[in-house]
Predict the 3D structure of the following.
Amino acid sequence: MAVNAERKEHPISMRLPEADIAMIDRAADLLGRSRTGFVREAAVRAAEEVLMENRPIRMSADGFAAFMAVLATPAAPVPEMVEVVKRPAPWESGYQAKR
Protein backbone atom coordinates (compact mmCIF):
# COMPACT_ATOMS: atom_id res chain seq x y z
CA MET A 1 0.00 0.00 0.00
CA ALA A 2 1.45 3.36 -1.07
CA VAL A 3 1.73 6.10 1.54
CA ASN A 4 1.38 9.70 0.35
CA ALA A 5 4.29 11.71 1.74
CA GLU A 6 3.62 15.36 2.48
CA ARG A 7 5.25 17.46 -0.22
CA LYS A 8 7.85 19.87 1.18
CA GLU A 9 8.67 21.76 -2.00
CA HIS A 10 6.40 23.21 -4.67
CA PRO A 11 7.48 24.19 -8.19
CA ILE A 12 7.14 27.73 -9.52
CA SER A 13 7.41 28.34 -13.24
CA MET A 14 8.24 31.72 -14.77
CA ARG A 15 8.67 33.06 -18.28
CA LEU A 16 11.46 35.61 -18.49
CA PRO A 17 13.22 37.42 -21.32
CA GLU A 18 16.60 36.01 -22.26
CA ALA A 19 18.35 39.17 -21.03
CA ASP A 20 16.84 38.72 -17.55
CA ILE A 21 17.96 35.09 -17.42
CA ALA A 22 21.47 36.09 -18.50
CA MET A 23 21.68 38.72 -15.75
CA ILE A 24 20.36 36.30 -13.11
CA ASP A 25 22.85 33.65 -14.24
CA ARG A 26 25.78 36.09 -14.09
CA ALA A 27 24.81 37.20 -10.58
CA ALA A 28 24.27 33.61 -9.41
CA ASP A 29 27.67 32.61 -10.83
CA LEU A 30 29.37 35.48 -8.99
CA LEU A 31 27.92 34.19 -5.73
CA GLY A 32 28.60 30.55 -6.55
CA ARG A 33 24.89 29.70 -6.49
CA SER A 34 22.53 27.95 -8.85
CA ARG A 35 19.93 29.95 -10.75
CA THR A 36 17.20 28.33 -8.66
CA GLY A 37 18.96 29.08 -5.37
CA PHE A 38 19.66 32.67 -6.38
CA VAL A 39 16.09 33.38 -7.53
CA ARG A 40 14.61 31.65 -4.47
CA GLU A 41 16.75 33.68 -2.06
CA ALA A 42 16.02 36.97 -3.86
CA ALA A 43 12.28 36.29 -3.96
CA VAL A 44 12.10 35.27 -0.29
CA ARG A 45 14.14 38.34 0.75
CA ALA A 46 11.83 40.64 -1.24
CA ALA A 47 8.75 38.97 0.24
CA GLU A 48 10.12 39.37 3.79
CA GLU A 49 10.76 43.09 3.19
CA VAL A 50 7.20 43.65 1.95
CA LEU A 51 5.72 41.75 4.87
CA MET A 52 7.86 43.59 7.43
CA GLU A 53 7.00 47.00 5.93
CA ASN A 54 3.29 46.25 6.14
CA ARG A 55 3.21 44.58 9.53
CA PRO A 56 1.05 46.38 12.10
CA ILE A 57 2.74 47.47 15.30
CA ARG A 58 0.72 46.85 18.43
CA MET A 59 1.30 48.45 21.81
CA SER A 60 -0.59 49.38 24.91
CA ALA A 61 -2.04 52.85 25.44
CA ASP A 62 0.69 53.58 28.00
CA GLY A 63 3.36 52.33 25.61
CA PHE A 64 1.98 54.52 22.82
CA ALA A 65 1.93 57.57 25.11
CA ALA A 66 5.57 56.94 26.07
CA PHE A 67 6.50 56.50 22.38
CA MET A 68 4.81 59.79 21.45
CA ALA A 69 6.54 61.56 24.34
CA VAL A 70 9.93 60.44 23.05
CA LEU A 71 9.06 61.65 19.54
CA ALA A 72 7.99 65.04 20.92
CA THR A 73 11.29 65.53 22.76
CA PRO A 74 13.72 67.81 20.88
CA ALA A 75 16.73 65.99 19.51
CA ALA A 76 20.09 66.61 21.16
CA PRO A 77 22.89 67.72 18.84
CA VAL A 78 25.74 65.27 18.30
CA PRO A 79 28.95 67.32 18.52
CA GLU A 80 30.80 65.21 15.94
CA MET A 81 27.97 65.63 13.42
CA VAL A 82 27.79 69.39 14.04
CA GLU A 83 31.53 69.65 13.34
CA VAL A 84 31.22 67.65 10.10
CA VAL A 85 28.32 69.78 8.86
CA LYS A 86 30.23 73.01 9.57
CA ARG A 87 33.29 71.90 7.55
CA PRO A 88 33.52 73.28 4.02
CA ALA A 89 33.11 70.70 1.31
CA PRO A 90 36.33 69.77 -0.53
CA TRP A 91 35.16 71.59 -3.65
CA GLU A 92 34.47 74.74 -1.59
CA SER A 93 37.77 74.89 0.28
CA GLY A 94 40.30 74.71 -2.55
CA TYR A 95 41.30 71.24 -1.38
CA GLN A 96 43.53 69.40 -3.86
CA ALA A 97 43.77 65.62 -3.74
CA LYS A 98 47.31 64.27 -3.43
CA ARG A 99 48.50 62.40 -6.50
The mean pLDDT is 90. The chain is about 55% helix and 0% strand. The longest helix spans residues 35-53. The radius of gyration is 26 Å.
